[in-house]
Design goal:
The chain is α+β, with helices and mostly antiparallel strands. Helix content is about 25%, strand content about 40%. The strands form two sheets. Strands 9, 10, 11, 12, 13, 14, 15, 16 and 17 form a nine-stranded antiparallel beta sheet that branches. It is globular and about 80 Å long.
């Protein structure tokens, strides 16, 4: 009995080995064109298979050096409207079979409420490339000033299922931020773009928005320079330009009670609305490790509370906003944007 059992076991092992070997042989037996098409179809299925669609956060030009150091002395000539950076945009996208897509965008109230139909394509050269091939709201950003593109180069999928992209037209200090995140519910697709539009408009309607960054009762940065001055046309132009570029600078007087102007300290960042509140890139930092990106709207203010989150893919901890990662470890770092006019 035992020799027969041993023979049968060896036969099964040999069969399994040959079966695996045949499968591997079939994979390598594919032509380069077939393997390329296989990668394209797998990526297409990833896009199409999201049942509620995707959220695209797109910041074409994230200047990582502009208004980053809160200790740098700024003169009034350093914060004129031509010195502002550029912000981002939020779009909801459903990819469907036949290279078609449906898109809602926060560029206008109408585009946020209504679906625009367009087409896309996936190509594979040195990298996978997602291209928006017919006119869509995204193409309104494709110009010399805003620096938008309609071709995204795929980099990787993170631990939480977000698709990370880049472009071929960036440098070290001025990189795009392009992230596709799967929507979790049908309600997000229905009203997410409208909520993002409304939250951005609410922020831009604040009379004197100020930011406070603290840990517990210890304040690291507190802005106090008024944002709007009634009747000041030059100031009104600066406000409109900030809103057009979606970029905001929070300033504090270096010597608030000194009658002689000693300059400002400041933090600046591009922004876009989200369904929860606001998202800033490159965000607000007071040191190399602590940056506030995502703010949740709570009544008449926006709050970012940082928690520590472990990323198994990169095997390190990151600070993220609590409303996006509610199970993260508390750090007590909080940033608040409040309209001090009220």
């Amino acid at each position: 009995m035992y020799p027969m059992f041993r023979t049968l076991s060896l036969s099964l092992l040999l069969y399994a080995f040959l079966a695996v070997g045949c499968k591997q042989h079939n994979v390598f037996d594919q032509s380069p064109a077939e393997r390329m098409q296989h990668h394209i179809e797998n990526f297409r299925q990833t896009l199409v298979s999201a049942p509620h669609g995707w959220q695209l956060q797109y910041f074409p030009r994230v200047d990582s050096l502009l208004f980053r150091n809160p200790l740098t002395r700024l003169d009034w000539t350093d914060v004129t409207k031509d010195k502002y950076g550029y912000g981002g945009y939020l779009m909801l996208i459903k990819f469907v079979e036949g290279n078609r897509l449906e898109i809602k965008a926060d560029l206008t109230d109408r585009q946020a409420k209504n679906v625009t139909s367009a087409e896309y394509d996936i190509r594979l050269g040195s990298s996978l490339q997602l291209s928006f091939t017919t006119h869509a709201p995204l193409h309104e950003l494709v110009n010399r000033e805003f620096g938008g593109v309609s071709d995204f180069v795929y980099r990787y999928r993170d631990y939480w299922g977000n698709l990370i992209f880049t472009t071929g037209v960036s440098d070290d200090s001025n990189r795009p931020y392009i992230v596709l995140s799967p929507l979790k519910t049908a309600e997000e697709w229905k009203s997410g773009a409208e909520q993002a539009f409304e939250n951005r408009k609410f922020f831009e309607s604040m009379v004197h928005p100020q930011i406070r960054i603290r840990r517990g009762s210890r304040i690291f940065f507190q802005s106090d320079v008024p944002f709007k001055k009634p009747g000041d046309e030059q100031n009104k132009e600066k406000e409109l330009e900030r809103n057009r570029r979606r970029y905001h600078i929070f300033l504090s007087y270096r010597e608030k009670y000194d009658p002689i102007f000693k300059g400002y300290n400041g933090l600046g960042s591009g922004y876009t609305g989200t369904k929860e509140g606001l998202s800033f890139r490159p965000g607000f930092s007071y040191d190399d490790k602590t940056t506030f990106f995502d703010f949740e709207r709570k009544g008449d203010k926006f709050v970012a509370e940082l928690v520590s989150v472990y990323d198994p893919l990169f095997q390190r901890f990151y600070f993220q906003s609590k409303h996006l990662f509610p199970k993260g470890e508390t750090t007590s770092y909080i940033a608040e944007i409040i309209d001090t006019h009220k």
